[in-house]
Amino acid sequence: MTDFAALSKDVLAGFLQTVVVIDDQAYDVQNEKTAIPLKSPSRGQAKADDSSEDAARTQVAHSLDTSQLVSAFACKGLVCAVIAPQKDEPVEQRLGSVVDRCDIVIIDWQMFNDDGKQTLSLIKHLCEGDCGNRLRLLCVYSGEPDLEKISDQITGKKFGFTCHDNNKLLLRKDHVIVTILGKSVVPVERLADELFNCFSIFTRGLLSNAVLAALTGIRRNTHRIIQKFDSSLDQAYISHRILSVPVDNSESEILSVICSELESAIHQSPKIPYINSGAIQAWMKSDARKNFNYDELNVNPNFAPQALEKLIEFGINHSDHSHDNVYQSICSKVRSKKFVKESKMTLILGGKKPKDEDRRFAILSTLETRYEDYVPKLTLGSIVHDGERYLLCILPRCDSARVPTKGRNFLFIQLVDKSPPQIDIIVKDNNNLVDLGISMHPYDTIIIRFAASTAGQPVKAVEKDGSWVFKIKSEDDNVETVRWVADVKPQVAQAFANEYASKVSRVGVNKSQWLHQLANKE
Fold this sequence. Notes:
About 40% of the residues lie in helices and about 20% in strands. By secondary structure, it is an alpha/beta fold. Strands 10, 11, 12, 13, 14, 15, 16, 17 and 18 form a 9-stranded antiparallel sheet that branches.
């Protein structure tokens, strides 16, 4: 195992919490070690009756030492529950809610000799259930001799599973991972380690490790955060709500306060070591290096790995390496606009689709993610499409929070999507990544009137033909709409609005052109 793989496994161990084992033969292994009684042959018996021995061997092959399994997970800090379902008890209906809350699910294939019927039902529940796309690992831990046959039965059900790295015993569909292990191949004492290794394959990454560490930090401070919002503040909150206009505006404000506390828990926790230069160096020594493409650096191949390590350690600021002409040349090349625009650095680091990957990361840093049943609201930072062009709303949040039913004018600036001179925002629209440049010219400002369905409420989108749209306020019966595309993060949207405001507030002054030219900044 590489250093990076061990690092990834370590952060995963701090995040995972719960395991559930579902097995119809989940009993103490001591019961199965009882010696099989010898049977004296009767007079004239020509053939030994070995049916009882076969049954005993089958029982041993399918049995599970739950005591040892619970202890193995406990040593890793995980709580492991063991459930032995009753015969004719639908596992999906009886235990579905339990499974939804667990990180790792271990289930036998043969539940009362049903040839995988109950297990397949549970897999279907995990694939189709609304569990918030929670990443979970389901282990089919079976005493069956033909494990690939089990894999064929799972993939044959058209759940959408695909083999990982051509391994028929490791399957994945979206957020559900299924691994198939034999009880005779992976003994109970090794099962916990095997499942950790399997799980970490799908969480291994610099950013995913950082996310797991951050969430672990929040979890560690959960009770402190709850105590800060204890019941002694209920009266103060109600007073705040009464004084708020409108009153229900206080609900979103409190959510913002809670988010701020969660952010503090992350920022004030010990420095996350999973994204620093040391972690990146470990990443470079992992299997990722197989995909490195040093050709784009255009330097001596023997020097390229060292140059890349320097870039990671010091960045493109070469002031500390003024004596190194080769490194200075590389830095100048890497920071050139053409090099950046063509995503060459991401290509060097082994990106399969470097331009798409850079755009996805840009979206992550500038646009809000839509979770669960979010209904878009028209406010500062909303990006819409009117059928011809993309528009960015720059109306202040306080003016868009309480809109009368008679309507209010919303201010938009245009976004250029066809060969923009510069790229300010990237959106994913109809599964296409679209580069957008903002036109800050005051004469490109667009005003559109919208009305709230309820007085004093924000303008909310409605669903139409699979999209979210905002209805334009019209004096006639014609219903015109603009299509919601995305929401820019509040701080990013405010920065755009401030830049636009500076353009609007420009002052034209009559002065000497000679002086104007001397004062002109390049």
